[in-house]
Specification:
The protein is mainly alpha-helical and 415 residues long. It has eleven helices and no strands.
Length: 415
């Protein structure tokens, strides 16, 4: 028996019409345009969220920068902690010895460099005054042909400009004092965070992992430990690069008779922690010192020494040591430093490369699902194909909910 055709409801007809319209619209829109639009709104959303996050972090930079700096220092000092622990020294005493020795070394370097700079600038003052007199003589006898009255008039105008802007200068001095206070508070917070990172770093990390969803904890744990190892490798290699830059430029300055060679080496060492750019600018300071003290011939020789050291860093140290340690291309390093400087100034230039190294390692770890075969977080490597399958062991238990004891030693991956 043939049943009569059932009439569709108006809602069903409207739905079918909409479906046909969508299919027709999809046919009319090119695939490349549709794909580009899908990528565009997703990438735009990521950029928007990242911008808002950076804006929010900028308002609490007094907290973020000391924590980041403490993390870098902790990754550098953890091997020292490991040596002390293997020597049967208690955990608390090992942390105290590590921090005290580190602060003592940094304080000694700063004190030595400060004294040398004070004595050196006192000796260079007469030479600087003589240089200004030579400039004044060049303005008078050189191609400009300025008279003494015109030169004095320019000096008076400069003094008047300083007096007229005394309010702005006073505001700048007050702002500098406020910045010095913020620097002191940040230094104390850095030391405080460093102590607890060394003392209870494993416990803090397990607490953070425990905040993640249960199914994601193993992946987050493995990715975080790999990222930490990448940052530690970066800090150690960058310390070696900074040492080579400091020895090369400082020794070259001493050989050609540039004053303040020792404090100049300290400045170059500290500046080299900003990759590529830091050693270049500190090397220019050496060139200026050579120009003021010994003339332009000595300055050209100092410039050649700086360029040779930079070529050694760029063509030997960076490709052979830094590249394999952090898996970053030199172009990525330069772009990271430039972008970090534009966004956050000197702190951005300092932290951009280690953060990029961490992000690169974490993304690769998660994309490859490496936690499934990572024994550091409970993953089990697959057995060889030609061997019989071993019996299944007990399932992996999630231990991130349990508290760890204070005497638990940090894992090797965090060192």
């Amino acid at each position: 028996m043939i049943r009569p055709a059932q009439r569709k409801s108006p809602e069903a007809l409207q739905g079918a019409h909409d479906h046909v319209s969508k299919r027709a619209l999809a046919r009319d829109v090119p695939y490349a345009l549709s794909l580009s639009a899908a990528w565009a709104w997703r990438v735009g959303l990521i950029v928007l969220v990242a911008g808002v996050l950076i804006w929010l972090l900028g308002h609490i930079s007094l907290l973020i920068i000391p924590l980041l700096l403490a993390g870098l220092l902790a990754s550098l000092l953890l091997p020292v902690m490991g040596l002390l622990r293997r020597a049967k020294i208690p955990n608390g005493l090992a942390v105290a010895l590590t921090v005290v020795v580190f602060l003592g070394v940094v304080g000694s370097m700063a004190t030595l460099a400060g004294r040398q700079l004070a004595l050196g600038f006192a000796d260079l003052w007469d030479e600087a005054v003589e240089g200004l007199q030579q400039v004044q003589g060049w303005l008078h006898d050189g191609p400009l042909g300025l008279t003494t009255i015109q030169i004095d008039q320019f000096i008076d105008e400069g003094a008047a400009a300083v007096q007229n802007n005394s309010g702005s200068i006073l505001t700048g001095v007050i702002s500098l004092g406020s910045s010095a206070g913020s620097f002191g508070a940040g230094a104390l917070l850095t030391v405080f965070a460093l102590i607890f990172f060394l003392l209870e770093g494993e416990r803090i990390w397990r607490f953070v992992v425990g905040l993640m969803p249960r199914d994601a904890r193993i992946a987050v744990d493995g990715a975080g430990r790999r990222g930490w190892s990448s940052m530690a490798n970066y800090v150690r290699v960058q310390m070696l690069v900074a040492f080579v830059d400091a020895v090369g430029i400082g020794a070259g300055a001493a050989l050609i008779g540039v004053p303040l060679a020792l404090p100049l080496s300290v400045v170059v060492f500290l500046g080299s922690f900003v990759p590529i750019v830091g050693a270049l600018f500190t090397g220019l300071v050496a060139v200026l010192l050579a120009l003021v003290a010994n003339g332009w011939v000595n300055a050209l020789i100092m410039l050649a020494i700086v360029l040779v050291v930079q070529q050694l860093e760029g063509h030997v140290l960076q490709p052979l040591i830094m590249g394999p340690a952090v898996s970053l291309h030199p172009l990525a390093v330069v772009l990271a430093v430039a972008g970090g400087t534009l966004i956050a100034g000197i702190p951005g230039a300092l932290f951009s490369v280690p953060l990029l190294a961490v992000v690169n390692t974490v993304v690769r770890y998660i994309a490859a699902r490496s936690w499934e075969t990572d024994p550091a977080v409970g993953g089990v490597p697959p057995p060889p194909q030609n061997l019989p399958q071993p019996p299944a062991g007990p399932p992996h238990t999630d231990s991130y909910d349990s508290e760890t004891t204070d005497s638990e030693e940090p894992r090797k991956a965090t060192q």
